[in-house]
Specification:
With about 190 residues, this protein is an alpha/beta fold. It is built from seven helices and five strands; from the N terminus they run E-H-E-H-E-H-E-E-H-H-H-H. Strands 2-1-3-4-5 form a five-stranded mixed sheet, sandwiched between helices. Strand 4 (about 90) and strand 5 form a beta hairpin.
Length: about 190
């Protein structure tokens, strides 16, 4: 009989893991619960890594809600595919999703198709937006650097002004000026 292994996560230390722990033990029958206190943005999750080290093929990784496992649909899909590659099943209590069953796996594949569709839509919209901007005579991307401003800034720097002060005086972005200075091998590189 496979073991159910729980995973609980909260974003900050002020939040409490006890509700997740209790649901994973009482509702899912988890024999052990691994925990992380980490933002969903963080990919460094020692509790999840420990769960993966502990689990055996055939076990079932379980969470209370999908958002405890991944912040985005894409991240969630990658994580669950990682479970599958290790021979683990996956269950989410709140969404009543279980990849061990045929219907649960189908739902998860539908999620994957939706995520792929969303990525394709974003690419198409971006491409259409760039084409529309070009049709209106706009040039997408960073505007070309004004060579006169750059030369004026270089003159100020050679006369002893700091690059930050020169950029401010000429009306150039400080990071733009530093980037241009880094591209000029014959120009002495100032310290920021």
């Amino acid at each position: 009989m496979p073991d159910v292994i729980g995973y609980a996560r909260v974003s900050t230390a002020e939040q409490d893991l006890e509700v997740q722990r209790r649901r994973l033990r009482d509702e899912a029958g988890a024999i052990r619960v691994f925990e992380d206190v980490a933002s969903g943005k963080s990919f460094d999750r020692p509790g999840l890594a420990a769960l993966l080290d502990y689990a055996r093929p055939g076990d079932l990784a379980c969470v209370v809600r999908l958002d405890r496992l991944g912040r985005s649909l894409r991240e969630l899909l990658v994580t669950v595919e990682g479970f599958k590659a290790r021979g683990l099943g996956f269950r989410s209590l709140e969404e009543r999703l279980d990849t061990v069953s045929a219907s649960g796996e189908l739902v998860f594949h539908v999620f994957g198709a939706i995520a792929h569709f969303e990525r394709r839509l974003i690419v198409e919209r971006t491409r259409d937006g760039v084409a529309a901007a070009r049709a209106r005579g706009k040039r997408p991307g960073r505007p070309p650097l004004d060579e006169e401003k750059l030369q004026a800034a270089l003159t100020l720097i050679r006369s002893g002004l700091s690059p930050s002060a020169a950029a401010r005086q000429i009306g150039l972005g400080r990071s733009t000026l530093y980037r241009e200075l880094a591209l000029m091998p014959d120009t002495p590189q100032p310290t920021p």
